[in-house]
Design a protein that fits this description.
heterotrimer, A alpha/beta (242), B mainly alpha (341), C mainly alpha (308), B: mainly alpha, ABC transporter involved in vitamin B12 uptake, BtuC, two-stranded antiparallel ribbon, 14 helices, 5% strand, C: 308 residues, mainly alpha, two-stranded antiparallel sheet, 12 helices, 4 strands, 4% strand, globular, transport (chain A)
């Protein structure tokens, strides 16, 4: 059953077209890994799904409901939550206050502050600390927790491992694991291909704003994704065609 | 005009701007001989117009080019008048006093700039107002001024009133022409490129090595000097000095109105704004308070709906540039890129 | 001398009331509203009109004027400031300055040049005082103003720290883009903040009119006082405006003692001295973010707890 449908989406930054004619459908419970080189348009795509950046053309449908031009603060109420790149916490506010802000939309669901704290036990002693003073891992956990507090149907995770040590990334993914297997629909942007393919059910590779590969993870090898990542598949298809 | 191989032309003087400069010269010459035919009232009005042009151009230099919005520029207007009174009282020729007073005010603005230019945006704007309010109070303490009762530039009375009027007219005309000329030359110089870089993007300008603070200081001092000239000339035309009229925030309101309506950051815009203000004042000034309400409301509307002012709109629609302070790039095709905005 | 000091401190209560709205708006929307003083005077005229024309006591009048001020704040943000702020940081200065001219002259047109006061409508409150040991008198109104300032600042701080709407305003102040991503309508949060700021302006207008006289052009000086108190109070917490107000009030009262014109001069000079010290000795921005910071709260809470 399709929960999210993206149709011919174009997103621009001024004159620069960051996302070109991207289309895909996402089924409920899918975990989609969005991979691609820096500047491929992954973050822009996620931000336009979350409503932080309105597209120049194309449509976005959530449960067959048009939300292409719906502003970000109403999208979260409709069930799309983004954990932004660089975490973007309110650094002057405490962990608890950041989490409470996640409830602004008022969507009903199971997520409470206590549940976030049990999912991310490392946050418990930091409850009343300002997020500006947290470690990178704690900040990332707070950012994910803040998004979860809105009880989203679709969770968008943008580079959760950015700037974290491998050990901390392991911990964050371990904490995410229950979420990843619980049937929540997730789109995640991840630089580490191995990690991305380890948790995802489907992978989309972007190159210069376009989708160059879209496949269930089980039907594809890491090598194929790497080729698409560097744009080598085109050379292959070009040769095959000639 | 410089031609670069593939058909691109960089030009500064377009035909319309050459024509414009020619007309400016003719207009100044006509203004110079005008008193021969004009009556006393008309001469006084034109003197006021010249003073408005100075005020608008100087506020525009500060805000439009330096990015420094001040609501306290009346401090320099008042000081220009005050020092004229002081110097004339000390025995200096009143006409010489006008310019000596402006020089003193300009000199005072230099140390002031080291302090005020550290403030940003609205803090600078109101900070200048505080400076003006304090200066007003301190001037009131001078016994010569007799508090709010004020005093007058009595030494002007030795001149016959007809001569006096024409001399002040010529002084105002010459001051206006000189100040506009200085500003024009400044904007076309190397400092002008820096000024426009700051106007467009201060952070980028800093990273390119533009000396932002030094450039702003130059504009701050120039504006202080120019506005002091205007204040001194205003005193010469009206002869009476009441501190609260000269240190009134109304003067800044006029400056803001002229520049907003004419076009902030446009050399021609300030002049256009001053002329419009002059016309509006001539026709509606007698309406008193409604006239002021109209000025305020117009300023609000321009800031909301036409923030580049009338001249900005004219430039955009008709692609004219009369007094070029930048360069324009002509591409071989039909498109034109304007380099200076 | 002690008398002068007490009067100065109590005067600071009024300045804190009028400054808190200015710094609140600045910290949330990054806009210094140059019509701030004029709007306070407009509220004063509103109360005066209700009292003189309809016999409504100024305190009851607040029940009408404050909601009206809130509505004005909301509309101001939605239709003027929001649009103007899109044109850059300098444009709102010009917009609000133009607005101040319109408001001042409309009031002049409507009410004329006469100075007015609410003192005749509050009975003996305007001159009643308590006698302290040592033969010092403190005006009841001045004490009331100070109490209001403390209650207002405390209430504002409580609202910002403990209520979801308050948190939404703080989040918007810090990062409007991300506020949208957590579900906050930043435009609404800003409009709400402007409405709250205007309520404080309304209260300031009431005290201005009760403790002294005002005329259509009183707005400019009130803006300067508010600005000075906010700047002296500096970055830190909303309580800074109370300290800033008290410093300003003291400087003015002492200045008045020295010279007949010293009231205003004293205030301006102390303001500039504080500014000078901060710019050249400390080097921090002058109004920074009036912090609603947790540490700020914690310090204050600790301070309150430690006092018996």
């Amino acid at each position: 059953m399709t929960i999210l449908s993206v149709q011919n989406l174009d997103v621009r930054h001024g004159l620069l077209q960051a996302v070109r004619d991207v289309s895909f459908d996402l089924a409920k419970g899918d975990v989609l890994a969005l991979v691609g080189a820096n500047g491929a348009g992954k973050t822009t795509l996620l931000r336009s799904l979350a409503g932080a950046h309105l597209p120049a053309a194309g449509r976005i449908l959530l449960n067959d409901q048009e939300l292409t031009l719906v502003p970000s603060h109403r999208r979260i109420a409709m069930g799309i939550a983004l954990v932004p790149e660089g975490r973007r916490l309110f650094s002057q506010m405490t962990v608890e206050e950041n989490l409470l802000l996640g409830k602004t939309s008022g969507r009903p669901g199971d997520w409470t502050i206590d549940r976030v704290f049990s999912a991310f036990p490392n946050l418990v002693p930091r409850r009343h600390a300002k997020t500006g003073h947290l470690s990178g891992g704690e900040q990332q956990a707070t950012a994910i927790g803040r998004a979860l507090m809105s009880n989203p149907d679709i969770l968008l995770l943008d580079e959760v491992s950015l700037g974290l040590s491998p050990l901390v990334v392991d911990r964050v993914y371990a904490q995410l694991q229950s979420l990843l297997t619980s049937g929540t629909t997730i789109i995640l942007v991840e630089q580490d291909l191995g990690r991305a393919m380890g948790v995802a059910s489907r992978v989309i590779c972007m190159l210069e704003g376009r989708v160059v590969l879209d496949s269930p993870v089980k039907n594809i090898t890491r090598d194929q994704v790497t080729k698409a990542y560097f744009g080598l598949h085109r050379a292959n298809t070009g040769r095959a065609a000639s | 005009m410089t031609a670069i191989p593939n058909g691109i032309i960089i030009e500064r003087w377009t035909r319309s701007s050459q024509l414009a400069l020619g007309s400016v010269a003719v207009a100044l010459a006509l203004f110079a001989i005008a008193p021969l035919t004009l009556g006393a009232g008309a001469i006084d009005r034109l003197t006021a117009l010249f003073i408005y042009v100075i005020l608008a151009a100087m506020w525009n230099a500060l805000a439009g080019f330096g990015g420094l919005v001040s609501v306290g520029q009346q401090v320099f207007f008042g000081l220009g008048a005050y020092f004229t009174i002081r110097l004339a009282d000390a025995g200096l020729n009143p006409f010489l006093s006008l310019f000596a007073a402006a020089l003193i005010t300009g000199a005072i603005s230099l140390p002031l700039s080291f302090f005020m230019l550290r403030l940003k945006g609205g803090e600078f704007a109101i900070g200048m107002w505080v400076i003006s309010a304090l200066t007003h109070m301190l001037v009131n303490l001078d016994r010569l001024i007799q508090g709010e009762t004020g005093t007058s530039l009595i030494s002007l009375n030795v001149y016959e009133s007809g001569t006096r009027r024409v001399v002040i007219y010529w002084l105002a005309l010459a001051s206006m022409a000189a100040l506009l000329g200085i500003l024009f030359a400044l904007l076309r110089s190397r400092a002008g490129a820096a000024i426009q870089a700051i106007r467009d993007n201060e952070d980028a300008a800093t990273s390119l090595g533009v000396r932002v603070i030094a450039t702003k200081r130059l504009l701050f001092v120039l504006a202080a000097f120019g506005i002091a000239v205007a204040g001194a000339l205003w005193l010469a035309t009206s002869t009476t000095f009441q501190p609260k009229t000269y240190f009134s925030v109304q003067w800044t309101a006029y400056m803001i109105f002229m520049v907003l309506v004419g076009g902030i950051g446009k050399f021609e815009g300030a002049i256009l704004g001053a002329v419009l203000f002059f016309v509006i004042e001539t026709f509606f000034g007698a309406m008193g308070v409604w006239y002021l309400i109209g000025l305020g409301a117009t300023a609000v509307l321009f800031s909301l709906f036409l923030p580049h002012g009338l001249w900005g709109e004219i430039e955009r629609r008709f692609d004219v540039r009369l007094l070029p302070v930048g360069y324009r790039l002509k591409l071989p095709g039909p498109t034109k890129i304007q380099w200076n905005q | 001398m002690i008398d002068t000091l007490i009067q100065g401190i109590l005067l600071g209560g009024y300045y804190a009331v009028i400054a808190c709205g200015l710094s609140f708006m600045f910290s949330v929307m990054r806009i210094i509203n140059l019509a701030h003083g004029s709007l306070a005077v407009a509220a004063a005229y509103g109360l005066w009109l209700l009292a003189s024309r309809f016999g409504i006591s100024p305190f009851a009048g607040l029940l009408i004027v404050l909601p009206a001020m809130a509505a004005i704040g909301w509309l101001l943000q939605r239709y003027l400031l929001e649009r103007s702020a899109r044109g850059g940081a300098l444009l709102p200065i010009l917009t609000t300055f133009g607005l101040a001219i319109v408001i001042d002259n409309l009031m002049f047109e409507q009410f004329g040049a006469d100075t007015r006061s609410l003192a005749p409508f509050i009975g003996s409150l305007s001159y009643d005082s308590w006698e302290l040991p040592g033969g010092i008198y403190v005006g009841k109104l001045a004490v009331m103003t100070m109490a209001t300032a403390i209650a207002l600042l405390g209430g504002l701080q409580l609202f910002l720290s403990r209520f979801a709407l308050g948190r939404a305003i703080r989040a918007t102040a810090e990062d409007p883009d991300t506020a949208g991503l957590v579900g906050i309508d930043a435009r609404k949060a800003n409009a709400l903040a402007a409405a709250i700021a205007m309520v404080t302006v309304g209260i300031a207008g009431a005290f201005l009119a009760m403790r002294a006289t005002f005329d259509p052009y009183s707005g400019g000086p009130q803006l300067l006082f508010a600005f000075e108190a906010a700047v002296i109070g500096g970055a830190g917490s909303l309580w800074g405006t109370l300290i800033g107000g008290i410093v300003l009030g003291l400087a003015q009262s002492l200045g008045a003692k020295v010279h007949p014109q010293g009231f205003l001069i004293g205030g301006h000079v102390v303001f500039l001295a504080v500014l000078f010290a901060r710019l050249f000795l400390v080097g921090t921005p002058i109004i920074g973010r009036i912090g609603f910071t947790k540490t700020g709260f914690a310090k204050i809470r600790a301070a309150i707890r430690s006092t018996p």
